[in-house]
Write a structure and sequence with these properties.
alpha/beta, Rossmann fold, 5-stranded parallel beta sheet, globular
C-alpha cells in the first residue's frame, strides 16, 4: 500500500473522499505532522525520511524542488502532482487506483502528473 502525505494546500475534499472510500488508506497531511507553513524542500525532506509520496496541486515549484533533490543524489519516495481544477471525484478514483495497483517503490525518485 502507498504511504501518502498531502501538502498544505491539497484539496481537503479529496482527502476526505479518499478516507471515506478507503478508511485504511495510509495518508497524512502536513498539518498533522507539524509541517504547517513549511516550504517545499522541507516537506520533501520529511516525506523522504518517512517514506511518503507527496500529493500536491503545486505544479509551479514542487516538481522543481523534487527534481533538484534527485539530481543532488538525495532520494525521495515520489511526488504526485494533480491539477487543482481536476474534478474531485476523478482525483479520488485516480489516487485509489494508484494505491491499489502500484507499489511504493515504483514511484521512488519520480515526480509524475496524475492522471498518468
Amino acid at each position: 500500500m502507498l504511504r501518502l502525505l498531502t501538502d498544505e494546500n491539497f484539496n481537503g475534499d479529496i482527502v476526505r473522499g479518499l478516507l471515506l472510500r478507503q478508511p485504511d488508506l495510509d495518508i497524512v497531511r502536513v498539518q498533522d505532522v507539524g509541517l504547517a507553513g513549511s516550504d517545499d524542500p522541507d516537506i520533501l525532506v520529511w516525506a523522504a525520511e518517512n517514506n511518503r509520496i507527496v500529493l500536491t496541486h503545486d505544479r509551479a515549484t514542487m516538481s522543481d524542488y523534487a527534481y533538484e533533490r534527485v539530481a543532488a543524489g538525495k532520494g525521495m519516495a515520489g511526488v504526485f502532482i494533480l491539477n487543482d481544477r481536476f474534478p474531485v471525484g476523478r482525483a479520488i478514483e485516480e489516487i485509489l487506483l494508484l494505491a491499489a495497483c502500484t507499489e511504493q517503490a515504483e514511484w521512488s525518485n519520480r515526480a509524475v502528473h496524475v492522471p498518468l
